[in-house]
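U., I forgot to send this yesterday:
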Amino acid sequence: MSVTIEIPTAFRRFTGDTAKVECTPATVAGVLEQLTARYPALARHIRDEKGQIRQFLNVYLNEEDIRFLGGESCPVKDGDRVMLVPSIAGG
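Result:
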């Protein structure tokens, strides 16, 4: 089973400019675990000090926000895409 993680441009400096990463987890939490194990410098941008997904990072599974799918415990299957979308603020 293979799941593709799409890395936003803002995070690619932590992945050696890699735009997509393949992994083989069972849940979205596993996807994030495998991603941060492979790229440890990315971990602090994904999770806060309490281990929660950062407030300004949106995580999508096949274009559906995981908050509406049961959070990071929602299962993934072969061919799924996980997208990390950091919120951009400005003014």
